[in-house]
Amino acid sequence: MTAYDPTAAPAAGATAVADPSPAPAAPVPAAAVASTATSWPQQVADAAPDGSDGISHHQPTLTTGSQGTAVVELVRLLKNLGYATNTIAQGTNYQNVLDLSVIADVRRFCADHDVANDPAEWVGREQPPQVFQETHIGPYIWEALYRLQPKAS
What is the Cα 72 distance to its own chain's centre? Predict the structure, then answer.
């Protein structure tokens, strides 16, 4: 497994294929992660030495119905951390469509690690920010998934 390199460009023309990696270990316990006294958006921004927002990836915001390489990558990251109860990880969602089972795995990950989207992203939309918070995978969730990946041995 290759370690995440935030400076590397996404692979062009990557195709969605089943992940041949072995079954994941149990979810990484929240206690194994540094204290989360402040929200992930604030922690990420505070950790950025250059004054940026601290986001080190170029992943899109996803919601139910999304498809493509970003969805496959999301499921791979979740599976590496032990969140593999969704239909894509189980091999029954052949179109790799982000469905409610993937959202459920993301929600469990977020609850276990005190991760949330930045609510400022959703202000001014038709629905309250809480609706988007529950159904979208935004930059801070992606960032947490990348930062918490097991280190290659």
Answer: 11
Radius of gyration of the chain (CA): 15
Residue 2 lies in a domain: no
The pair of three-digit structure tokens given for residue 36, joined into one six-digit string: 């989360």
| Residues of the chain below pLDDT 70 | 1-54, 119, 121-133, 153
- Please report whether residue 10 resides in a domain: no
Q: With the CA atoms of 30, 115, 58 and 12 taken in that order, what torsion angle do they form, in degrees rounded to the nearest 10?
A: 50
73: tokens are: 């990558």
User: What is the spatial distance between Cα 97 and Cα 94, in angstroms, rounded to a whole number?
Assistant: 8
Does residue 142 form part of some domain? yes
129 vs 121: CA distance, rounded Å: 8
For residue 28, give Cα distances in angstroms to 31, 60, 71: 8, 24, 21
Query: Cα separation of 130 and 82, whole Å?
Result: 26
pLDDT of residue 70: 95
State which residues form the domain around 115: 61-147
Query: What's the domain count of the chain?
Result: 1
**Cβ proximity of 97 and 16 under 8 Å:** no
pTM recorded for the entire structure: 0.64
Confirm whether 38 is domain-assigned.
no
